[in-house]
C-alpha cells in the first residue's frame, strides 16, 4: 500500500512509514510500543556505536532497579515536580483468583507499605546508591551508564517520539569539583552531537536550555536540537549539569584530598529510542525509509532478474562471489534470490526499508558484464561494470552517508531565519516552518507569552551564537543574543 | 576483609564474595539488586556471546512492552496459575502533592481501568502480538528474542540467584509444525549447554523436567542443570516446547501451504543473570572469584614492584610493550602502576576479582629478563623468561579455561551417586551432597512425597540416560530409568 505523501499529511506519512517498514507498532497496552525486529536492528546499531563511545570516554555500564520507592522522588524538590505527575505506580504484589471465577483480581492483602514508582529516570535511585559508593576523592570521578527501559505516563503518544515506555541510556556521573562536572556535561554533549552527525547523518545545534525547559533537578541542561522535514524541531539528546542538587538530597559527601568533606558534583545525560523517530523524520521520503549506510542493518541488496532456471543459476554463481568480496570489505550484503516475490515487489520493499544500495542483475547484464546500481537516497540508477563493484560500492556508501547529511544540513540552513519582529517570527512559525533566530529578553515570562501566542518554544540558546545586542521581538526589552525558536515534537 | 570460608559458611561466603568483588549489592528496594560495574561487565560478556549464538541460529531481536494487561494472564489457564501469584501490579498512573505537604501520594483519580502487570515473562504479550504478525505459512518460522528485565515477587531473595527484578533474554518462536517446534526447543537447549560448558566452564546435564517442575503453560520443559560446590543443584537455563497452548489462548492460526488453517506451534527459552550466581558458586574459592578467561573482563594484569622511581620507569617501558603485544593477540590486559596501593594489596584485590593471570615484575626480574606469573585457578606461581610472554600467555589462558571446566566436571562426577534405596538416597541428600541418580515410579505423588521427606526434587530426567528397569526407591513400583535428584537453589 502506498504511503501518504509528506506534502499532504506529514503525520499520517510518518505513522504509516513506521508501520509499513516494520519498525514498530502500537501494543495492546496504551502508549507502549512493540519495537519490531527490523526497527530493533537499527536501534542495536545505534546502541553499539554509542556504547563504544561511552567506553572510550572512560564510562562503565551498570544496572540499577526498575522500581523507585515513592519517598525517594520527594527528596529533590524540583525533581518531584517534574516527574511525579506522570508515573506508573505499583501498589500491590500479588493477584488472586476472582471468587466468581472470572479471572484474576488484585489481592487486597498484598498491598505494599510504600508504593513503588516505575523509574521515569534514575537520578534518585542511583544517588541513593552513590552514597555508599563514594567516601573519598579516590572514589571520584564515578562514570557510570545504564541501558534501560523507563516509563513516563504520556497522554498523547506517538511511535518512537513519545511513548509511555521507551528504551534509553542514562549516564550518571559524580565528580570532585564543579569544573570537572561541567567538563563532563559538555563532553557528553559533544559525544551525542558527533554521533548524531556522523552516524545518523543528522545535523544538530548544540545549545543550552532556558530555565523553563531545564531538566527537573538540574542547574543547567545542554541539548542537541535537530530540524525535521516538516519544519518542526526535535530534541535529540540532553546532558545535564546537576550541580550538588542530588548530592545534597541524598547526602553524598566525599573526603577531600586536602581534608574536609564536600558534597559531590553530578551530571546525567541520555538519548533514547526517540532517536529512531529523528532518523525517520529527518531523511525519509514518500517511497519510505532512507537509512544512512552507517546505521543500515543491510547496506546492499542484490536482486536477480531472470526467467529461466539456468539464468538464475548463472546469476547465483556470480552474485555469491560479490557477496563474499563485499563482506570481506566489512559491508553487510543480502542476496535475495527468494522466488516467493517478484523483482518489482522486492524493489519497492527494499525502498520502503531504506536499504542504501540495490544491485539488480539480469541475463543481459550477465552478457555485458554489468549490473544496475540504484542508490536509495537520490533514487538514481546507473549501469556499471560488475568487475568494479568491490571498488565502487564502498565509495558509494560513503558518498550516500555524506549526501544524506548534506541534504539535511542544506534543508536546515534554508529553514533557519533571522527574524527581527513578532510579525516575521509568526511568518516563520505559522507558514514557512523551521528555526527562528530571534532576540529575547531573557525572562521566563516573555518565553511563556510567546509560547501561548504562537506555540513556539525556545529550543536552546545556541552555544556557538555570537553575542549581538538587540531588542526582544516580544517585549522590546534589550537582548544580548539571538536564541533558537521553533515548534517542537 | 577476609571472606568467610566455604567449608564453614557457604552461604555467607557467597554473599560476601558478591559484595567484596564488586559484583552486585542489594538496593533500597526490597529484593531488587544493583548490578555493579564489575559484575555488569561479566554479564555483558555473557550477553555478547549468547547474542552471537542466537543470531547464528537465525534469531532476531525485538522489544515488547514491560506491562501486561491483567486479563492477558488469564488467557492460558496453567500460565496464570504459575505466574499471577507473584506479580508487581500497577494500579495508578499519577502521584500528587500530599495536602499536608509531607511529600507525594497516589492520586486516587488516576486509577487504571484495568491493572497492568509488570512482566514476569512475556509469552502472553508476545503471542497477542504474533496474532497480527502471522497469517500464512510464509510468515513462519518466526524466530524472535528479547533482552529485557522481568519482575517476580519473590519472598526470599538472594543476589543473582533469586531477585525480584532480574535481567534475562527470552526467545519466543512460532512454527508451522510440531516437529519443527520440538527441533527448535532442543536446538536452543544445545546452544545453552554449549555456552555453559565452553564459556562459563560449567558442565551441565541436559534433561527434561517432570510435570511438577514444568513451565506454566508448556507441554515440555527442557533444562540444563549444574552442580554447585556445596552439592546443591542450580537450573542454569530452560527451553520450553509450548505445543499450541499459547496459539490457542491468543487465537494464532496460519494458512497452510496445502490449504486450511492451523494453530501455530510455539517455543520459549531463557537464561538470566542467575548465570552470574552459577558462575560464582561453581568455580570460586576462599580467596574470591575464579573467572574462566573467556568471561574475564580483564584476563591479565601486570603489577610492577619497585622502590625507586627509576626502577618503575624501566618497568613501565617493558610492560607497555608487553601490553601492546598481548592486546594484538586479542587478550585484555591491564597494567596497574597506580601508586595509591601496594603490590600486596593489588595481589589480594585481583585474586578477589578473579583475574585469571597476574604478572609481577620487579628490579631483579628486570636484571634476569624474567617475570613471575601467578595463575588464579591453581594459585601456582612460576618464573618465566619475559621474552616468552606472548607465546605463553595465550596458551596459559586456554589451559586455565580447560582446567576450570575439568575441575568442575571432576567434582560433579565425584558427587553423582547411583542410589538404590531411600536410605542411600538420604545419605547423599543429607550428608554427602550432590546428585542422586535414582529410580522413580513416574508419578507426581511420589515426587512430592520424596520432596516433603527430604527437600530433594527431581532436577531432570537426563536426556542421555540409558533405559534401565528398576524399582522406585520410595514406592517400590517399577521404573524405566533413573532420574536426577538433588537439593536445589
Question: How would you characterize the overall build of this protein?
Answer:
2 copies of one chain form a homodimer. In chain A, the strands form 7 sheets. Chain A has an 11-stranded mixed beta sheet with strand order 3-9-10-16-13-12-11-24-27-23-22, sandwiched between helices. Chain A has 489 residues and is an alpha+beta fold. Chain A has 3 domains: 274 residues, Bira Bifunctional Protein, Domain 2 (BirA Bifunctional Protein, domain 2); 102 residues, Rossmann fold (3-Layer(aba) Sandwich), CATH 3.40.50.800; 71 residues, C-terminal domain of ProRS (Translation Initiation Factor IF3, 2-Layer Sandwich). Helix content of chain A is 35%, strand content 27%. Chain A is built from 14 helices and 27 strands. The longest helix of chain A has 26 residues. The relative contact order of chain A is 0.11. The interface between A and B is large, with 63 and 63 residues.
Short note summarizing the structure:
The first copy, chain A, has 14 helices and 27 strands. Chain A is of the alpha+beta class and 489 residues long.
Topology readout:
The structure is a homodimer of 489-residue chains.
Chain A: H1 10-20, E1 24-26, E2 33-35, H2 37-56, E3 60-61, E4 67-69, H3 70-73, H4 77-83, E5 89-92, E6 95-97, E7 104-106, E8 111-118, H5 123-133, E9 142-151, E10 165-175, H6 178-198, E11 205-208, E12 220-227, E13 233-243, H7 245-249, E14 253-255, E15 261-263, E16 265-272, H8 274-283, E17 300-304, H9 309-328, E18 333-335, H10 343-352, E19 357-361, H11 363-368, E20 370-375, E21 381-385, H12 389-414, E22 416-418, H13 422-432, E23 435-439, H14 444-454, E24 457-462, E25 470-471, E26 478-479, E27 482-486
Parallel strand pairs in A: 3-9, 17-18, 17-19, 22-23
Antiparallel strand pairs in A: 1-2, 4-8, 5-8, 6-7, 9-10, 10-16, 11-12, 11-24, 12-13, 13-16, 14-15, 19-20, 20-21, 23-27, 24-27, 25-26
Amino acid at each position: 500500500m502506498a504511503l501518504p505523501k509528506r506534502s499532504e499529511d506529514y503525520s499520517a506519512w510518518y505513522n504509516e512509514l513506521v508501520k509499513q517498514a516494520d519498525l514498530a507498532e502500537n501494543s495492546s497496552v496504551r502508549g507502549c510500543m512493540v519495537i519490531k525486529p527490523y526497527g530493533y536492528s537499527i536501534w542495536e546499531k545505534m546502541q553499539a556505536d554509542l556504547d563504544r563511545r561511552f567506553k572510550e570516554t572512560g564510562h562503565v555500564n551498570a544496572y540499577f532497579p526498575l522500581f523507585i520507592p515513592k519517598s525517594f522522588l520527594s527528596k529533590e524538590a524540583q525533581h518531584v515536580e517534574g516527574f511525579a505527575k506522570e508515573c506508573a505506580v505499583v501498589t500491590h504484589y500479588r493477584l488472586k483468583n476472582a471468587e466468581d471465577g472470572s479471572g484474576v483480581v488484585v489481592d487486597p492483602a498484598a498491598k505494599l507499605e510504600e508504593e513503588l514508582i516505575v523509574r521515569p529516570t534514575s537520578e534518585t535511585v542511583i544517588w541513593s546508591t552513590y552514597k555508599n559508593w563514594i567516601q573519598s576523592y579516590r572514589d571520584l570521578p564515578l562514570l557510570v551508564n545504564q541501558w534501560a527501559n523507563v516509563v513516563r505516563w504520556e497522554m498523547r503518544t506517538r511511535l518512537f517520539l513519545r511513548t509511555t515506555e521507551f528504551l534509553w541510556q542514562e549516564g550518571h556521573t559524580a565528580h570532585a569539583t564543579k569544573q570537572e562536572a561541567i567538563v563532563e556535561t559538555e563532553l557528553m554533549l559533544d559525544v551525542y552531537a558527533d554521533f548524531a552527525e556522523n552516524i545518523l547523518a543528522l545535523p544538530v545545534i548544540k545549545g543550552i536550555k532556558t530555565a523553563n525547559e531545564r531538566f527537573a533537578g538540574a542547574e543547567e541542561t545542554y541539548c542537541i536540537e535537530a530540524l525535521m522535514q516538516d519544519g518542526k524541531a526535535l530534541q535529540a539528546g540532553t546532558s545535564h549539569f546537576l550541580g550538588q542538587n542530588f548530592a545534597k538530597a541524598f547526602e553524598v559527601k566525599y573526603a577531600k584530598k586536602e581534608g574536609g568533606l564536600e558534597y559531590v558534583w553530578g551530571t546525567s545525560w541520555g538519548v533514547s529510542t526517540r532517536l529512531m523517530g529523528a532518523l525517520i523524520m529527518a531523511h525519509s521520503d514518500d517511497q519510505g525509509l532512507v537509512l544512512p549506510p552507517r546505521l543500515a542493518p543491510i547496506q546492499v541488496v542484490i536482486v536477480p532478474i531472470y526467467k529461466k532456471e539456468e539464468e538464475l543459476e548463472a546469476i547465483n554463481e556470480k552474485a555469491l562471489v560479490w557477496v563474499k568480496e563485499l563482506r570481506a570489505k566489512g559491508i553487510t550484503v543480502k542476496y535475495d534470490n527468494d522466488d516467493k516475490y517478484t523483482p518489482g515487489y522486492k524493489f519497492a520493499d527494499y525502498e520502503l526499508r531504506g536499504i542504501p544500495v540495490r544491485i539488480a542483475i539480469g541475463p543481459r547484464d550477465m552478457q555485458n558484464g554489468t549490473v544496475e546500481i540504484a542508490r536509495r537516497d537520490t533514487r538514481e540508477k546507473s549501469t556499471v561494470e560488475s568487475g568494479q563493484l568491490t571498488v565502487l560500492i564502498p565509495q558509494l556508501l560513503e558518498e550516500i552517508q555524506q549526501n544524506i547529511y548534506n541534504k539535511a544540513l542544506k534543508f536546515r540552513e534554508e529553514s533557519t531565519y533571522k527574524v527581527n519582529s513578532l510579525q516575521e517570527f509568526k511568518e516563520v512559525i505559522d507558514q514557512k516552518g523551521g528555526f527562528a533566530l530571534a532576540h529575547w529578553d531573557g525572562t521566563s515570562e516573555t518565553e511563556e507569552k510567546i509560547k501561548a501566542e504562537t506555540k513556539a518554544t525556545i529550543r536552546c540558546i545556541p552555544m556557538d551564537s555570537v553575542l549581538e545586542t538587540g531588542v526582544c521581538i516580544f517585549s522590546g526589552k534589550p537582548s544580548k543574543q539571538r536564541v533558537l525558536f521553533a515548534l517542537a515534537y
